[in-house]
Amino acid sequence: ALYVFKNITKKEFWTPKVEKWIKISCWALNVGLAGMVFITLMPVGYIQLKDALEHGYWHSRLTSFYEQPLVKAIMWGRMPWDIIF
User: Fold this and answer.
1) How far apart are the first and last CA of the chain?
2) Coiled-coil region(s) at which residues (predicted)?
3) For the chain, which residues make up each domain, given as ranges?
4) pLDDT in the model for residue 4
5) DSSP assignment, residue 67?
6) Mind listing the pLDDT tens digit of every residue in the chain (85 residues)?
7) Residue 66 to residue 75: CA distance in whole angstroms
8) CA quadruple 58, 61, 64, 66: dihedral, nearest 10
9) Of the candidates 49, 19, 40, which has an alpha carbon nearest to the alpha carbon of residue 82?
């Protein structure tokens, strides 16, 4: 997408300063996505898988699953990565 954006804009617009900020935003987007996956989605997924294996799939899909203190803490830990993303 950045390659296309660079080619469709006027050459005067694409200054080194603009290019620097676009690179920073691209990396921030990738860091935010990685943070969401590795800080929240994978740990909660593993907890949910463990719950499904112990009690059944129906139990791991209940809304009470998300009310557990550990799951709530992990979900709150997701907030900084959501803000970056």
Assistant:
1) 17
2) none
3) 16-84
4) 79
5) G
6) 677 777 788 878 878 898 898 889 888 888 888 888 898 889 999 999 999 999 999 988 999 999 999 999 998 888 887 777 6
7) 9
8) 150
9) 40
